[in-house]
Design a protein that fits this description.
heterotrimer; B: alpha+beta; Uridine Diphospho-n-acetylenolpyruvylglucosamine Reductase, domain 3; Enolase-like, domain 1; five-stranded antiparallel beta sheet; four-stranded antiparallel beta sheet; 12 strands; 20% strand; C: alpha+beta; Ubiquitin-like (UB roll); DNA polymerase, domain 1; 2 domains; five-stranded mixed beta sheet; 5 strands; elongated
């Protein structure tokens, strides 16, 4: 955009349309993408993992003798050759590249074979004979809580409990006492998986005895890099990780996977390139998807609909490993407070280990489950209070810029405009509660992070870095560690740089997601890329602009602040004829400064919460969404069909609206899939015959992802209200719009036929059953009966801002020994404190 | 990627050559016509073959012809060509609807009508990879000894998965098979056995060559309908289908009626007592409900596919009402699936 | 038993080439591995997702379920042959304009299926497009942009001007607050 220079580093919100920012443009990575499985190298060989066929057992023996007879067999690996554990979170280093002593779910990788062809590797893998000594199968939260059963891991919070969390913000009991209505509900959200169309693939190329390059379909090349260094026991400088284009991610490629490490190890062992491409069934074993979550909500409301207190309890079935699970557990509680004003709030959560593929982050990470519960709960509250559900929500809106009861700092809050848009667009006022039997409207809202406030492992470095290289060609090379997963992050990066420098997207050459060549960006997760990479790119570009401007100002004898960068020129705002081409301007600058390069980086602002667990939830700002779904329900069969979706999303400012709409519509799609049909469900065989616990539907045919025919028409409204904390005012869009979809569907079903379905996915038999119950005069509901008695551990008591708190917990033992906070995600109070604590720890050792 | 195991492949240009190859061969030789069922099953290693013979290079096996009071569907006619053949759409609309609902459009360009009537029975304990089936110690349909759907059952409960079969049964179609020994034409209803494993009355040396539909079943003589239940609007197999054919006299009184249910048994299940129930009556709300109750009794849905089994039983009644209701011109009561919209 | 191999002249994107491959290999494997045409992707190899669709004699088929050995004399078209010289095909243009390809992984199969549709039915309705493409799963887009892009390509191919609707690029204009 044509904007005179003012000063270095100064970033201000610019509302007027830019040359790129705010305009629909073609994505920069659209042509001829190369995915990891497309790569080929001379002497490429193929890897296959041997996976456990039992859910929980000690490994007695692994016999490769038959496998070695397969023509083309090259070599094998077992866990003993990679003894170092790894895990995405520093607190859950509980995985091994290949299982060493025991297996923990059907699909757990236990050995690996390499061969000259994939067919030979597969044939050999089938011949690897593994003997097991069975252990108890833990198939649910209930069995995980049982102290008597074999433990899946020897760490955690007792029995097969991985993590217990309990925290209280404000005096919840007083809140209930002040309420006119105290509502209690139990909800269940089934697990589901990302199901990216690209099957995970990795190619490892050994370049020396201690040097390897790993190409992988990963959203987080930096974290893969760290884990490889740890498990391969090599200096990170000997390992290069390149994230190829991801054929979809959705959180499913944001963990570190066994096959990535084993491929690298095998390449180093064999001294030749190794490829592994998982088959579809194996993707269901990698998983790291939505945690099946049982929830209980107790909320106090006044007659006018204002909320006085809420107590949320969650129980997560985490699967066999930690993964992001500690963060997931906190996330089921953290964002309840950012949409509506909740003056007092209590959260208890527990995550259990079970003998299933590990759960982790999927689009919305830990928040779609409680959001579903909350928004259906509010619909019931509105009904009981005789209020319109839209009004109830408008009555409770969170205050922009406020600090929530659990100490989250909010930015702009566009939720009012979101609700108003979908209410008007759907004809809510005229139609809600008034449609014929079998037709209904449901409303729900949601909110999501624009990047997690803290990195996954403790460090003092920026979370995102960008480098620019400019030279006399007039082209600008942009280096950044971000990983394109289809969401359009490459395009955002290019657009920000092009906008600031007044050049075209075609003038930019991107080099991304290469740990050797690009500065670290933490990866494509937590909806962080547009905001964090955008800021870092903006800073790098502003610095380049300043270098060029200084050279040009001198040549043209024009004051620095009058120079404008636009249309591939640098010119005088007062006399646009006076100027240089961008190419000539860069040439001048190169002559003046020498070789040109700039950097930019971004670190999120400090969060006000300083209690244990305060690390999960903070974000520079939050996006907001509201949706209305219209549904047609057949009361004779329980079959239903969403007829239309209206959605409004508070984007702050669109960098590229056509990319934003893509994320909005894709989120609706995925939300509907979860609400209607998708389940990562398991079969326990009859116990007296077998202890098998297997994935019920590990295929694209039987795991139901909606087809072209199942997607209803959509009306999308983008609420543009720039947030000063986002680059050019932008907020996230990749995950937030999913959140209102499942509850809006459940609420619409209620409006249509008068029954509550308190769980997703909503299967037609549930509606029919609830209608039958209703017909018998019983509760017109289908859902979990009760929330079990669970010990959540000692409750952390944190006074709220309204109570005059300081963001710290009362009697928090952790407060006295701050060094315990170092390294545990979600436990860092502040950078400064942790830094000091670390220094203390070093000096007292 | 999942790949096929090695096998010898033959694509003879004449039926005689095919019959020669399959003569005297055991189950290690398989005939393929399209491969949309056999190849996935072989990739998952629950069907196997040392030798596969394709029928697709034999010109006379493809095409649809009317003669001698019958419509003859050549077994290698693709599903898409079957749907696009005007005579099928006009005279046998329920068949056209059923075939048009099979899986997805690109698959219908590959799959054949002969392949579809022979499609293997399905079960979520069976249609899984070798490794998955190892983890349950297999099932009696392949390598194992137990039916995990009904562990105390002596039989396999895999369900029929063909969409064309229930319609063709309802229309009274016959199937022509050839072998080196000669030719055999039997009613399609006899072609299917009530067993998840031995589900076809077809010897390894026999090749399905044609499907014959009698003119008495065409739209000038009878009214037919096909309703299919599946989760999604495309790709999925039926978890229940209802194929109905009704013959009436001048007074709209039923002279004959047949309903076959797909996917709720190991073969297309005839709704027993239907003709007796409806004969001489006019199709109205009441008679349709009576027929639906019979369908409910006939269906044996098991927990071996998508959706809750008990609900699929309920749906057998609802979709029978819907199919007969459509034939009778009654107001539709069930929410129609996408393929009818 | 020695593995049976086949040597065939394949016609791919108008070019003839002699290819030798194990007889049990599918067209998908032969395209990607023997011919180096990795534009054709795969998501399940079981005919359940449509990702691997290519055109054979103008019709979309699933290359994961077609034996290359049965491709003698047939015209195979893959996404590599879609461009006209170095110019994007109308389908590629409209997909790019509407962000109808996000991660791009299902896109080659969608493009080829759409090409097959347009050859058969140059001006399909949105319902016809939906049905023709319904064998492909896409996890990114929610499908609408794909349908709109195919409509746009049909218009462009017919020599008409095509400008995407305002709401397709910017979202629907906000309703008047008056109706609140």
């Amino acid at each position: 955009m044509a904007e005179p220079i003012e000063s270095d580093q100064q970033e201000e919100i610019r509302d007027e349309p830019g040359r790129h920012i705010g305009q629909p443009f073609r994505r920069v990575d659209g042509r001829a993408k190369v995915f990891a499985d497309d790569l080929h190298f001379p002497r490429l060989c193929h890897l296959k993992l041997v996976r456990s066929t039992v859910p929980h057992a000690k490994i007695e023996k692994i016999d490769f003798s038959a496998a070695t007879e397969v023509p083309g067999y090259l070599g094998s690996l077992t866990g003993r050759q990679m003894p170092k554990p790894f895990g995405i979170l520093p607190v859950s280093q509980d995985e091994h590249a290949l299982c060493i002593d025991k297996v923990r779910y059907v699909g757990d990788p236990v050995a690996a074979v390499a061969a000259t062809s994939e067919e030979a590797a597969y044939a050999a893998a089938l011949l690897v004979d593994v003997e097991y000594q069975p252990l108890d199968t833990i198939d649910s939260v209930d069995t995980a809580l049982d102290e008597e059963r074999d433990r899946i891991h020897d760490y955690g919070d007792g029995a097969n409990v991985h993590k217990r969390v309990s925290m209280r913000f404000g005096d919840v009991e007083t809140g209930y006492a002040e309420a006119d209505l105290v509502l209690e509900d139990t909800f269940f959200y089934e697990g589901n998986t990302h199901l990216a169309m690209e099957q995970h693939a990795t190619v490892a190329v050994a370049e020396d005895e201690d040097r390897v390059t790993v190409f992988s379909s990963t959203q987080t090349p930096h974290y893969v890099h760290r884990a490889l260094a740890k498990v391969l026991e090599l200096p990170p400088s000997r390992i290069r990780v390149i994230a190829c284009s991801n054929g979809g991610g959705f959180g499913g490629k944001s963990d570190i996977f066994n096959h990535e490490i084993v491929a690298a190890k095998m390449a180093l062992e064999l001294g030749r390139p190794v490829r592994i491409t998982l088959n579809r069934e194996e993707i269901f074993y990698c998983h790291r998807g939505r945690h099946p979550t049982l929830m209980h909500l107790r909320t106090g409301l006044k007659k006018d609909g204002s909320m006085t207190a809420q107590h949320l309890r969650t129980a997560l079935d985490g699967g066999a490993y930690g993964s992001y699970g500690v963060a997931s557990t906190y996330y089921t509680g953290a964002l309840q407070t950012v949409t509506y004003d909740l003056p007092r709030y209590r959260f208890d959560g527990v995550r259990c280990f079970t003998n299933k593929p590990p759960c982790g982050p999927k689009r919305g990470h830990g928040t779609p489950q409680p959001r579903f519960a909350f928004e259906v709960h509010l619909d019931k509250a509105a009904q009981q209070l005789g209020l319109d559900p839209a009004d109830l929500r408008l009555r409770n809106l969170a205050e922009p810029g406020s600090v929530t009861s659990n100490w989250l700092q909010l930015g702009t809050v566009g939720l009012r405009r979101c609700i108003e848009a979908v209410v008007a667009g759907s004809g809510w006022r005229e139609r809600f509660g008034k449609l014929p039997h079998g037709r209904g409207l449901g409303l729900a809202c949601g909110s999501y992070l624009c990047g997690a406030g803290l990195p996954i492992y403790w460090n003092h470095m920026p979370q995102s870095g960008v480098q620019l290289k400019l030279d006399r060609s007039g082209g600008v090379a942009v280096f950044c560690g971000e990983a394109e997963i289809g969401q359009g992050s490459d395009s955002v990066l290019a657009a920000v740089v092009a906008e600031v420098l007044g050049i075209e997207l075609a003038d930019i050459r991107l080099c991304v997601a290469d740990t050797d060549l690009t500065p670290v960006d933490l990866g494509s997760y937590s909806s962080r890329v547009t905001l964090m990479v955008g800021h870092a790119a903006h800073q790098a570009a502003e610095r380049a602009r300043m270098l060029i401007a200084k050279a040009v100002a001198r040549r043209l004898d024009v004051p620095l602040e009058r120079l404008v960068f636009a249309e591939r020129r640098v010119f005088d705002a007062a006399d646009p004829e006076q100027g240089l081409s961008f190419e000539d301007a860069v040439t001048l600058a190169e002559a003046k400064w020498g070789t040109l390069g700039t950097t930019g980086s971004y670190t999120p602002p400090r969060a006000p919460g300083k209690y244990r667990g305060a690390g999960v939830g903070p974000s520079p700002t939050y996006s907001y969404s509201a949706a209305v779904i219209e549904v047609e329900v057949d009361p004779e069969t329980g079959l239903y069909r969403p007829v239309h979706v209206w959605i409004a999303h508070d984007i702050g400012r669109s960098i590229n609206p056509v990319l934003v709409l893509g994320q909005v519509e894709g989120s609706i799609y995925m939300g509907l899939g979860e609400a209607m049909m998708e389940e990562q469900a398991f079969r326990s065989l009859p116990r007296h015959l077998s202890s098998a616990l297997v994935h019920k539907t590990p295929s694209l045919l039987e795991y139901k992802s909606p087809t072209f025919h199942d997607m209803p028409p959509v009306t999308s409204y983008l609420i543009e209200d720039p947030d000063p904390l986002g680059p050019f005012g932008a907020k996230e869009v990749g995950q937030g719009p999913l959140l209102p979809i499942p509850p809006a569907l459940a609420n619409a079903v209620h409006d249509a036929v008068g029954v509550r379905i308190d769980q997703v996915p909503i299967h037609p038999h549930m509606i029919l059953k609830a209608l039958d119950e209703k017909g018998r005069g019983r509760q017109a509901r289908y859902g979990p009966a009760a929330f079990p008695e669970i010990d959540f551990g000692e409750t952390l008591i944190v006074p709220t801002p309204a109570e005059g708190g300081d963001g710290r917990a009362l009697d928090d033992p952790e407060k006295r020994k701050a060094h315990d906070m170092v390294g545990e995600t979600g436990t860092m109070s502040s950078r400064d404190e942790a830094l000091k604590a670390k220094d203390r720890a070093l000096t007292t050792k | 990627m999942l790949r096929l195991p090695p096998f010898d492949f033959h694509t003879p240009g004449s039926l005689a050559e095919v019959l020669e190859i399959v003569a005297g061969e055991g189950p290690e030789t398989r005939v393929v016509a399209g491969g949309t069922d056999l190849w996935p099953n072989m990739k998952r290693r629950h069907q196997r073959a040392e030798r596969v013979v394709s029928l697709m290079a034999i010109p006379e096996l493809a095409g649809i012809h009317a003669h001698n009071g019958e419509l003859a569907l050549g077994s290698t006619t693709t599903l898409e060509d079957t749907v696009r053949t005007r005579v099928v759409a006009e005279r046998f609309p329920a068949l056209a609807r059923a075939v048009a609902s099979i899986s997805s459009p690109p698959l219908r360009n590959m799959g054949t009508i002969g392949g579809n009537i022979c499609v293997d029975t399905r079960c979520t304990y069976y249609n899984q990879t070798e490794e998955w089936r190892r983890s349950i110690d297999y099932c009696m349909k392949e390598k194992g000894t137990i039916c995990w759907v009904a562990p105390s059952s002596p039989r396999c409960w895999a369900h029929t998965a063909s969409d064309s079969a229930p319609v063709l049964c309802a229309l009274g179609a016959r199937v022509e098979m050839k072998s080196k020994q000669g030719e055999r034409i039997i009613p399609l209803t006899d072609f299917y056995r009530d067993d998840g494993i031995e589900y076809l009355d077809k010897a390894a040396n026999e090749v399905v060559t044609r499907i014959l539909i009698p003119d008495e079943s065409d739209s000038t003589h009878c009214r037919s309908s096909f309703w299919k239940l599946r989760r999604r609007g495309s790709i999925d197999f039926a978890v229940l289908s209802v194929a109905a054919a009704v013959w009436t006299d001048d007074g709209d009184r039923v002279t004959d009626a047949r309903i076959y249910l797909g996917a709720v048994g190991s073969r297309p299940l005839p709704v027993t007592g239907l003709a007796e129930c409806l004969e001489g009556k006019v199709l109205d709300e009441e008679t349709v409900s009576e027929a639906a109750a019979l369908a409910r009794k006939t269906a044996t849905p098991m927990d071996n596919t998508d959706f809750q089994a008990q609900w699929r039983g309920v749906m057998a009644a609802r979709y029978t009402e819907a199919a007969l209701g459509e034939i009778a011109g009654l107001e539709p009561r069930a929410l129609p699936p996408p393929h009818l919209l | 038993m020695p593995e049976q191999t086949t040597t065939l002249e394949l016609r791919i994107n108008g070019e003839r080439r002699v290819v030798a491959f194990p007889t049990h290999h599918t067209l998908l494997e032969v395209l990607r591995e023997e011919c180096g045409l990795t534009g054709t992707k795969h998501g399940c190899e079981l005919g359940e997702c449509g990702t691997c669709a290519v055109l054979v004699d103008g019709r979309p088929v699933l290359s994961c379920l077609a034996l290359a050995a049965e491709m003698a004399g047939r015209e195979i078209q893959t996404v590599e042959g879609l461009q006209e010289g170095n110019r994007l095909h109308p389908l590629q243009q409209t997909f790019a304009d509407l962000n109808a390809a996000q991660c791009g992984y299902c896109t080659p199969g969608v493009l080829m299926t759409a090409k097959g549709l347009l050859a058969d039915n140059p001006r399909p309705s949105s319902e016809e497009i939906r049905e023709a493409l319904s064998g492909t799963l896409c996890r990114c887009t929610g499908y609408h942009k794909i349908i709109q892009a195919v409509e746009g390509a049909a218009a462009l191919s017919a020599g008409e001007d095509w400008t995407p609707a305002e709401e397709v690029l910017h979202g629907t204009r906000l309703p008047e607050r008056g109706s609140e």
